[in-house]
Every structure is written in structure tokens, then in C-alpha cells.
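pls design
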């Protein structure tokens, strides 16, 4: 084999992740542009599937796609004080263009709330113009010191939704509707269980009233924030003077939301399902569901096997790997690395017995089936594999989510790669105490599956429910 081995997860999880990304044809570092990555064909094909799944849901709920400029006047960011303070360390600023110094620098888009505010002020005059339900597919720049492909890069791809409403109640409904859509794609499409919840005040989006997130557990017990939905209140409406005339004839500021999910979903997918052999993709996000590898040694076997293989490939809608000069073993190795859910083997004996061998990527199990039953069996196997991957990830989340009733317990348990549920006051000072041992409050779950109210493990004050604490990406 020419491919280098993949580091075992138990040996070095970070090295394992990078090996899977590289050998799975997902991405590679863009050495000439520090902190960026090149998304390879298999990785981009997965992203396109996730795009379609999200985009279809956005459009089904009345959202329209727009596109806004990559460059944002620096003064725009300064109009919302908390927003600019939150993003300042990550900004990339253009000061020279066309060989001349600009009168006002441009910031390369870290997110678009500010420039959206400017245009909402132009587009909205009356309650009849509301709601505005827009989404943008774009790239953004956030200058990161420590990068990891898909999870945290200087440039990444994402979608960012921006909506304006006449009431806070309507905006709140929108925020939670989108959170549900994100959770649906994560659970049903990616087979990645998530916890829906509200972020603490210290962890909310800069400039928002409230932020909500979906949090997923990776195989090493660390958390991944897989999508966020923000209640912006009237903060940006006031900063950019986005006013509308109400039904009663009064002027009021709009209530806005913003929400986003990015290519870090691909990283989450990899770390949720893949194994020490390489990439494992749930069937719903696999660009290629199945491959057929013909096996033969002699020319007369080749003609016989290939004729049946072509007929079967047509019936099954699968790709035939007929590459010359490559052994069947090397082909199996190649498709295993790429995470193809099902691989079929067809040799002379299979042709003679009207059978075919089917192998699942996730379990590695092989099954000899009749050729006439292959199409039905493939469909059922893909459906079973999707459910099994979700069930396995859900068991992992359940088995590694534990309760703690003291700060010492929390510190010990997160160090062991657990999601720790503890009573904690929503206060920046208590968040800081958790961060002192390199963990964070991921969110406060919307559904209380534990024991309800209790005393904060830091202050001793009564709080309504336990929060999720973990180390995170």
C-alpha cells in the first residue's frame, strides 16, 4: 500500500483526525496561505449535500437567498459597541486598494450583521415590508491563531441567515425554528446527536440579546458547537436606524435575528463516525453511496465478470471501479479511506452462483446475497446503516454525560472527556471559573432531562437547571 497508515484514535486523536481528513480526500492545508485549507473533492461534495439539506429547509420556511459584499466599511462595525469588541481580535482589514491608501479601511467579512443593518434600513419602511427572511451562502475571514481543518480556519464557508420582524415574539419564534432545523439536519442527515440549548451571557454572540446552539459530542468526549441562532433584539436596528411604521402609525425599531452553520459541520461528521481505518460517512451525506469492485485474473474471466458487473451497476445505480493496473485489495483500501458506505465484490464464483458480496463500511461485515436481491438489499442496508450510526453516537453521548455536584468533580470529569451536567449560575464570573481549567459552559439545555433546580456549585445560589460543561473545539 502506498498510503501512510492512519494514527489510532487512542494514540493521538488530533493526529488521527488530520490523517482521516487527508486520506479521505476531504481537505489539505493551504501552506501558501497560513491558517487556510483547500477543500478537496470528497470534502466539498459532502459540503454540497449539507448545503442542499439546509437550503431546502430554509426555502421551505419562506427564506430567500441574497448575497452581500465581502468588504464592510470599518465604521459599520463600530456602530454596535459590543459587536466590534467581540470581533476586533479576529478582523482582517484592507487599507490599500488600487495602489492607493483608502480613505476608510474595509474589514473583510467576519459576519454580516452590520452591513445587513445598513441595507435593512433602506429596504424597510412599513410593517408591510416585514418580515424579511434572508439567507446568504458565503465565505468569511476570522484571523485564527490555532487552526485545524474544517474545525477552525482563517477562511471558512458558511451560511448566515438574517431576518427582521415587527415583534420580539415573532423574532423569538424564528430563532427557535432555525435551531430546530439545524438539529434536524444534524440528527437525521448527519446521524450526529445534539443538545439544543441557550448560551450563557458570557458565551453569547457579541451584540445579541440571547444565543442558542446545538452541541455535539465527538468521539474523544469534546464538544463541537455545530450551529448557532441569535436573538439580536433591537440592538442592530437601533445602531443602523432600521425603523418601520407599525399598524398603529408609530415608528419602531425592527427585531432582528441571525443564525449560521459552517464547514465545521464536516469536521463534526468526521469526528463523530470515523474509525482507525479512515473515513466513515452516513449514507445520507455520502456523495457516492456504493461502489462495485470486479475481481478477475484471466482475460476470459474479465469479459464474463464485467458483463454482469455492468448490468448490476445499472440496476443498482453504483460506480464500477474498473481501473487498470490496480489490485482489488488496493481498490478496497481506497474506498475504505473515502468512507463509501457499501462496497460490492463480484468475482467468477459469484457470477457462476448468481451471487454478489456486499460489505458495510461501518461494521466491516460481509454478506453474500443473490444478485436479483441486490438493489432491495442495498437500499435496506443504507437505511439500517444510517440508523445504526446515529444510535451508536447517541449511546456514546448518553454513556459519557455525567452529573457533578461540585466544582472539583466538574474539573475531574471534563478532564476524562465527559459532558458534565452541573448546576451553575448564568454569570460571567462563574463561566470564568469553568474556563480556568480549559472547559466552558456549552449551553443550558432547553429540555431538562435531569433533576431540575439546584444550588450553583460556585455561588451556592438557586438555579433552574443543570448546564452542559465540556472541553470544546
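designed seq:
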Amino acid at each position: 500500500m502506498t498510503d501512510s497508515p492512519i494514527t489510532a484514535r487512542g494514540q493521538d486523536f488530533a493526529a488521527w483526525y488530520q490523517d482521516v481528513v487527508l486520506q479521505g480526500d476531504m481537505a489539505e492545508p493551504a501552506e501558501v496561505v497560513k491558517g487556510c485549507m483547500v477543500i478537496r473533492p470528497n470534502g466539498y461534495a459532502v459540503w454540497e449535500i449539507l448545503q442542499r439539506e439546509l437550503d431546502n429547509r430554509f426555502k421551505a420556511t419562506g427564506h430567500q437567498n441574497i448575497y452581500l459584499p465581502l468588504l464592510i466599511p470599518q465604521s459599520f462595525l463600530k456602530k454596535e459597541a459590543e459587536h466590534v469588541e467581540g470581533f476586533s481580535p479576529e478582523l482582517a482589514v484592507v487599507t490599500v486598494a488600487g495602489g492607493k491608501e483608502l480613505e476608510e479601511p474595509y474589514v473583510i467579512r467576519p459576519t454580516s450583521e452590520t452591513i445587513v443593518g445598513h441595507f435593512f434600513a433602506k429596504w424597510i419602511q412599513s410593517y408591510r415590508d416585514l418580515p424579511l427572511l434572508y439567507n446568504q451562502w458565503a465565505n468569511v475571514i476570522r484571523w485564527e491563531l490555532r487552526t485545524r481543518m474544517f474545525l477552525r480556519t482563517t477562511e471558512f464557508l458558511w451560511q448566515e441567515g438574517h431576518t427582521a420582524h415587527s415583534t420580539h415574539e415573532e423574532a423569538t419564534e424564528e430563532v427557535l425554528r432555525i435551531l430546530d432545523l439545524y438539529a434536524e439536519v444534524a440528527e437525521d442527515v448527519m446521524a450526529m446527536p445534539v443538545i439544543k440549548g441557550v448560551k450563557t451571557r458570557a458565551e453569547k454572540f457579541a451584540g445579541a440579546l440571547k444565543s442558542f446552539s446545538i452541541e455535539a459530542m465527538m468521539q474523544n468526549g469534546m464538544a463541537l458547537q455545530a450551529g448557532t441562532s441569535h436573538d439580536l433584539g433591537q440592538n442592530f436596528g437601533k445602531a443602523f436606524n432600521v425603523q418601520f411604521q407599525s399598524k398603529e402609525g408609530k415608528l419602531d425599531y425592527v427585531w432582528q435575528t441571525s443564525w449560521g452553520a459552517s464547514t465545521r459541520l464536516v469536521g463534526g461528521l468526521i469526528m463523530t463516525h470515523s474509525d482507525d481505518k479512515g473515513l466513515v460517512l452516513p449514507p445520507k451525506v455520502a456523495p457516492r453511496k456504493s461502489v462495485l469492485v470486479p475481481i478477475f485474473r484471466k482475460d476470459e474471466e474479465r469479459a464474463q465478470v464485467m458483463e454482469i458487473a455492468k448490468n448490476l451497476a445499472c440496476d443498482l445505480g453504483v460506480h464500477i471501479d474498473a481501473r487498470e493496473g490496480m489490485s482489488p485489495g488496493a481498490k478496497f483500501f481506497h474506498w475504505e479511506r473515502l468512507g463509501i458506505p457499501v462496497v460490492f465484490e463480484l468475482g467468477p464464483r459469484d457470477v457462476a452462483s448468481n451471487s454478489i458480496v456486499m460489505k458495510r463500511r461501518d461494521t466491516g461485515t460481509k454478506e453474500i446475497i443473490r444478485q436479483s436481491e441486490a438493489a432491495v438489499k442495498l437500499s435496506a442496508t443504507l437505511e439500517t446503516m444510517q440508523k445504526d450510526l446515529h444510535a451508536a453516537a447517541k449511546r456514546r453521548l448518553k454513556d459519557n454525560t455525567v452529573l457533578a455536584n461540585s466544582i472539583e468533580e466538574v474539573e475531574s470529569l471534563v478532564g476524562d472527556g465527559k459532558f458534565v451536567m452541573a448546576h451553575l449560575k448564568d454569570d460571567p464570573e462563574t463561566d470564568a471559573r469553568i474556563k480556568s481549567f480549559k472547559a466552558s459552559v456549552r449551553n443550558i439545555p432547553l429540555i431538562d432531562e435531569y433533576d431540575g433546580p439546584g444550588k450553583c456549585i460556585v455561588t451556592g445560589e438557586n438555579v433552574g437547571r443543570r448546564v452542559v460543561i465540556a472541553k470544546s473545539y
